[in-house]
């Protein structure tokens, strides 16, 4: 997982793998979603969090 998504912090929460980190723009979001799909990963949730 770390090889596929080096820009994210990764941890396990209740059996789910959680990726967290910042994406620069909509194209970056699309790229991450495409990578997840190509790896056969299921996206359970995505949240937009405004910087503090």
Question: What's a quick, concise take on this entry?
Answer:
The protein has 52 residues and is an alpha+beta fold.
Structural overview:
The protein contains one helix and two strands, in the order ββα. It has 52 residues and is α+β, with helices and mostly antiparallel strands. It has a two-stranded antiparallel sheet with strand order 1-2. The termini are far apart.
The assigned structural class equals alpha+beta
Number of strands: 2
C-alpha termini separation: 27 Å
Average pLDDT works out at 92
Unreliable spans are none
Total DSSP helices: 1
Q: How helix-rich are the residues, as a percent range?
A: 25-40%
Strands of the biggest beta sheet: in what spatial order? 1-2
Strand content: 15-25%
H/E element order: EEH
Q: What is the radius of gyration computed over CA atoms, rounded to a whole number of angstroms?
A: 11 Å
């Amino acid at each position: 997982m770390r090889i596929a998504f080096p820009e994210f912090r990764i941890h396990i929460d209740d059996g789910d793998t959680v990726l967290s980190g910042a994406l620069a723009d909509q194209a970056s979001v699309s790229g991450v979603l495409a990578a997840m799909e190509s790896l056969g990963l299921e996206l359970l949730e995505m949240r937009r969090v405004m910087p503090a």
